Amino acid sequence: MPVKIPDNLPAAGILESENIFVMSETRAANQDIRPMKVLILNLMPNKIETETQLLRLLGNTPLQVDVDLLRIHDKESKHTSIDHMNNFYRDFEAIRQKNYDGLIITGAPLGQIEFEDVTYWDHIREIIDWSQRHVTSVLFLCWAAHAALYHLYGLNRKLLESKRSGVFLHRRTNKHFPLLRGFDDEFLAPHSRFAQIDVAALKAHPALQVLTESDEAGAYMVLSTNSRNLFVMGHPEYQKMTLKDEYLRDLAEGLNPDIPQNYFRDNDPDKEPVARWHGHGSLLVSNWLNYYVYQLTPYNLDDMSAIAPWEADVK
């Protein structure tokens, strides 16, 4: 949240140059405040676990956030009861005519499947297109980031020889974005995926900006130049045991997975994992919600034209 200061205070220019968000008394007095409306499209198998992870991050902000949960289809889930889905999730048709301040689309266990072979690919494309007209800012995570970069900007991923799993060191490539306020020069973030989009291709695209990257894991945070779409290639929402649970699951299925890198103490899977990314994961979502949703969204959500058009930014 901003620091409210007197009009024309000399410190304002200094603080703004340091990426500290300040607001004059005049602007603060004329602000209209209401709850943020955020939609979550949950594509992960264990819906409840992912809900909890994302809500934990959204709750770490002084903003009031009203959340709707969206499902991609009404088929029975193997890992979540049909009662839970029917009670708490909406179908797309129920929200198609609504506008939202923010949308989060999660990852999905589809890393080795061609996009066009995904059973609900047409539906995913429809929701992505809808989001460009009905949502102020969209946060795409992991698989969803790759899917959206492919659909919106024509950038395809490349499959890796083995799953990239672990916690990797990243650096900021540009310090002057509100999304990176409070970030250290280097920070850790978890990844769990089978594919990667070439960093050079991302940097060469005129509608995209690579904000953070890793020598080992590639691009991590990519922002569209119109600030509407944020692509995060990893999992800032993951909790301490999530990578371990995935690793044990893959072992049980006979997949012979590599040990997640830089994750277990002494890189020994018999020892406890070490969580070293929660602070920056929380900061990422808080900054997105504040600077790219709250600060940009119209007070009246029926007036999306106040922040449009966005379509010129995509292919």
TrEMBL record:
Pathway: Amino-acid biosynthesis; L-methionine biosynthesis via de novo pathway; O-succinyl-L-homoserine from L-homoserine: step 1/1
InterPro entries tied to this protein: Class_I_gatase-like, HST_MetA, MetA_family
Keyword set includes ATP-binding: no
Catalyzed reaction equations: L-homoserine + succinyl-CoA = O-succinyl-L-homoserine + CoA
EC numbers for this chain: 2.3.1.46
Top enzyme class: transferase
Positions marked as site (Important for substrate specificity): S192
Major site of localization recorded for this protein: cytoplasm
UniProt keyword annotations, A-Z: Acyltransferase, Amino-acid biosynthesis, Cytoplasm, Methionine biosynthesis, Transferase
Pfam families referenced in this protein's UniProt entry, alphabetically: HTS
Site entry (Important for acyl-CoA specificity), positions: G111
Localization per record: Cytoplasm
UniProt binding sites for substrate: K163, S192, R249
Molecular function terms, GO-annotated: homoserine O-succinyltransferase activity
Active site, UniProt feature: C142, H235, E237
Entry keyword annotation includes Cytoplasm: yes
Its job: Transfers a succinyl group from succinyl-CoA to L-homoserine, forming succinyl-L-homoserine.
Family assignment from sequence similarity: Belongs to the MetA family.
Protein name: Homoserine O-succinyltransferase
Species for this entry: Shewanella eurypsychrophilus
